[in-house]
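> @MW can you paste both from yesterday?
MW: sure, first one:
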Amino acid sequence: MSDQPTHRADLRIDVGAIRHNVRVLSARARGSGARTMVIVKADGYGHGALTVARAALDSGADCLGVASLDEALRLRARGVDAPLLCWLHAEGDDFAPAVAAGIELSASSQASLHRMAAAAKQQDRVVRVHLKIDTGLCRNGCPAELWPALVEAAAKAEADGHVEVVAVWSHLACADELDHPSIDRQAERFHRAYQQARTAGLNPIRHLANSAAVLTRPDLHFELVRPGIAVYGLDPVPQHGDHDLRPAMTFRSSVALTKRVGAGESVSYGHTWTAKRSTNLALVPVGYADGVPRTLSGRMSVWLAGQRRPVVGRVCMDQLVVDCGDDRIGEGDEVLLFGPGDRGEPTAAEWAEEIGTIHYEIVTGMYRPRVTRTVVGAEAS
C-alpha cells in the first residue's frame, strides 16, 4: 500500500492501535475481575464498526455494544456472532429481528420490556435483557420511582420463560471530572437499584464504568466495563496521567495546487487573511463538507513537508489553503490534518480544544461520502 493518499481525503485507521488499546483496557478490567464490552456505536466512532469489532474481539474484548438496532443487525449480517448489546430504542422499533439474531436488548420501562418479551414468545425464544436504571444522567434509563415495578415485571417475565435478565446497568454523567460528587452519588443509587433487583428475585451482573471510569475507578468495574472512546486511543482523562493509548485515526489529504502570491494578496472568502510578503500557497482539496470545522478558520495548522504550516483564510466547503513561506511544495505532497501526533502533526484532541468541543465529536464526524477509509495494521480487515 502506498503511503500517499490516493483520493482527495482519506481516513487511515490503524488496527494495530485499536488492538493495543483494547489489550490495555481489558487488562485493567481483568485486574478487577471484570469482563470488557467494547462500544462500537456510530460506526465504531467513525473508525468502522466491523473493523473495530473484529479487532476488539481478537484482542481481549468479551462482547460489544451499540446504540441502535440497525447497528446491531448490520454487525450480525457481517458475521459478528459475539454477545452484542443494543440499548437505545424508538417507539416503533421491531424487536423481532433482534431477538431472532440473538441480540441482547436494554429495557428502561415496562412497556419496552413487554414488547421484548412478546417478540421472544412469538418466536419461542429467550431474549437476554439488560435493565437500565437512571442514576442521575437523566437521559435514558428507568426513573428510580418506577424501578421497583420494572424489576418486579422483569422477574415475572423471567419466570414466564421468554426473558433472561442479564444485567442491571447505568451510565455516568461526569466520570471524566475525577472529583465530581455525582460519581459517588450515582454509584450509591446504582447499588440501591441493584439490591432492589436482587430482592425481586433477579440475579444480574452489573455494568456502570465507561472509558473514564475504566481508567480511574476500579471500584466501579463490577462484573463488566464498557470502554468507548479510549478504544480509539483518545483519552477521556488526560489529566490523570499517561494511559498508554494510541490514537487510531489519521486524516490525510494531498496538495492539489501550488502558487506564488505577492504581498498584499488576500486568501479565501471574506479576505480575512492577507499576505504580508510574497509567499508560496498550497491548496488542499478538503473542507467543511469533508469534516474540517469551518470554525477552525485562522486557528489550525497541518503537517506538510516535514513541519507544521498554518492554514490561512477561511476553510471552505471543498478546500483550504496553507501558507508555505518560501519553501517549495509539490503537487501531490501528503498533508496530515490530524493524527496520533507522533511526527508533530495536529491531533483530534487539539482540534476539539481549539473549537471548544470534545474529541468524540471530531472523530465521529469525520467519515463523509467524499472521504475514503483505509485500514492498516496487523490483520487489517
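MW: second:
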Amino acid sequence: MFKISEFSKLSQVSAKTLRYYDQIDLLKPTHTDADTGYRYYTADQLFQLNRILAFKDLGFTLNQIVQLMDDHVPVEQIRGMFRLKHAEIQTLLENEQARLKRIEERLHQVEKEGGIETGQEVVLKQVEAQRIVCLRQRSSIQQIPQLFDQLEDDLEKCFSLSFPQIVLWHGCEECEEEIDLEVGYRLQQQMSSHSHLCIRLLPETSMMATLVHRCHPASPCSASADLGFWIEQNGFRIKEDQPRRELFLHPDKLDANYYIAEVQIPVEKVKGQSDAH
C-alpha cells in the first residue's frame, strides 16, 4: 500500500484533493490507521481515480461522479461519453476558428478603410447573359461552403462541375441574422428540372464594376466595401433589382482554403457626372 503522499505523487493529484475525496465518499483510502489517522491507498485505486478524473473532464459535478462510481458505469459507456465530448469540443473549436477568421478579416477592413489594396484595380466591363443552375436559401455567410456542398451532391450525378462558383447576394429587408443567398454554377449543357434547384438566365449587364480579390468563402472581406467606395467616388450608382455577384474563380495557390474571387456590382452613371478615372 501507499501513503497518501506517495499516492499523490503517483496519481499527480494533490493530497489535499485526495483528503476531500475521502470526506465526500468519492475515493476512500483502503486503510486508515486508527492511531495516526494516516491514509493508505492501493495501486488498484489509481484506476478508480483515473475514472473520477475522466468524469470531471466530461463536465460532471463531484456529486454526480459519486453516483456514477457507485453505479459502476462500464468502460464502453465511458468511451461513448468521451466520443460525444470529443465531437462537441471539435465543433466548438471549428466554430471559434471560423470566428477568429472573421475577426481577422474585420480588423483588416478597419485597418485599410477607404483604400483599395495595392495590385487591385476596379474594372468596368460588359458581362454577357449566362444560364446558371442554382440553390437559393436564407442562410449566413458561414454556410456558403455547405450550400455549395449541397448543390454539388445533387449535380454530380448529372455532370461534372467546374469553376467559377457563383454567389448571388439578394436584398432581404425582413431578414435579421440570415442573408438571402443563391449559389450556383454556369450551365454548359442542357439539364432537366430538379425539385429544389432552379435553372435561370442571369441577364446581360452592360456596365459591371468588378474587383478581383483574395477571400475565404465563409468569412467577410472588404472587397464589396472597397468597390462601393470606388462607385461613390467615381460618379456611379448601383442598379436596382440586380443582385451583387461574386465569382470564386479558383483556389489560391498558397492556401487552398482561400479563393481568388471577383466581386461584380451592376452600375450606371449618375447623370451630370464626368467619366470615371
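> thanks! The first helix runs from residue 4 to 11.
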